[in-house]
Every structure is written in C-alpha cells, then in structure tokens.
Amino acid sequence: MRNWVLGVTCAAMVAAAAQTLLPKGAVGRISRFTGGLLLLLAVVGPVFTLDESALSQALARWRESGELAEVPAAAQVNGGAMEALIAREAGAYIAGKAATLGADCTVEVEVRTEGEYPVPWSVAVTGELTEAQKEDLRWQIEADFAIPEERQTYRTGEGGAE
C-alpha cells in the first residue's frame, strides 16, 4: 500500500512539474496527456499485478473463519437446488482448470451444508492425469475451494481408483 501511494504521488509530481515547465500549445497538451496517462498507470498498476492464487487462498481462509455475511430471507434459495448449482458450477470450474493443465477428465463435487451455507466438501476426478497434473490440480482445488487433499480422490478410466 505504501509503495502504491508513493508511486501515485511521484507520478503526480512529475506530471505537475512537466506541465509547469513545458510551454503552452501543442507541446503542453501532449505533456498533459502523457502526464495523465502516467498518473492513470500509477493508480491502476496494482490491478495488473494481482496475484490470483494469493487472492484465492485469502478467500478460502476467510470462508473457513466463518465471517460470512448472513443471507437475507428474500435472497435464500431452495437448499437442494443451491447444492446442485454449487456442485455443478464447482465441477465445471475444476474441469476447466484441469483442461488448462492439459488433462481430460470428469469431476464430481460433493456439497455439504456447513452452518447455514452449502459448500463444496469433496471432489472426485476421473480421467488420465499425470502425477504433475494431479499435484497441480490438488493444489488449485485446495486453494480455490479449501478442500484438503484428504477429500480429493483421483480415478483412472471408468471408476478405477488412483
């Protein structure tokens, strides 16, 4: 945070100094435009360097801490339908992650209700995955869904165990 504030302040000072020192006219307009772009880049720069895995881990820790906001009664959905939706979407997400690793597989997600909220509890992945792909996928599932390795199963082919 401190580095970001320092960067924005420096960019603003450079832009102001350039605007003051450069002559009016076309050169002044170009320098104001360039200074504005420099300031914009300093302000939004951290968005381009966002660490997705750290964000996923922070969200998983937040979820585990139990600090979830209470859902208003009007926004509640039928529990079974919500569990099915979460299982389907989590399975599709994990299968997509596996595909980016070069693995072709099917994913089944078991959802349980913890407290008032249904959450992904365990996952079963069926397909031909290398050990490296399994390890990467294990890490990604734990980071994104807080499902520990003990509740992740990997099967080859038609229901065969790992």
What would you say about this model in short?
The protein has 162 residues and is an alpha+beta fold. It has helices at residues 2-21, 26-48, 52-65, 79-100, 131-145, and strands at residues 105-114, 117-127, 152-156, 160-161. Strand 3 (152-156) and strand 4 form a beta hairpin.
Commentary on this structure:
It is a single chain. The protein is an alpha+beta fold and 162 residues long. It has five helices and four strands, in the order H-H-H-H-E-E-H-E-E. The chain has helices spanning 2-21, 26-48, 52-65, 79-100, 131-145; strands spanning 105-114, 117-127, 152-156, 160-161. A four-stranded mixed β-sheet has the order 1-2-3-4, covered by helices on one side. Helix 1 packs antiparallel against helix 2 (26-48), helix 3 (52-65) crosses helix 5 (131-145) and helix 4 runs antiparallel to helix 5. It is elongated, with a radius of gyration of 24 Å. The two termini are 45 Å apart.
Structural class: alpha+beta
The gyration radius over C-alpha positions equals 24 Å
Low-confidence stretches: 71-75
Distance between the termini: 45 Å
Query: Helical amount among residues, as a percent range?
Result: 55-70%
Number of DSSP-assigned strands: 4
Q: How are the strands of the largest sheet arranged? A: 1-2-3-4
Tell me about the largest β-sheet. 4 strands, mixed
Number of helices: 5
Shape: elongated
**Average pLDDT for all residues:** 80
Taken in chain order, the helices and strands follow as: HHHHEEHEE
Portion of residues in beta strands equals 15-25%
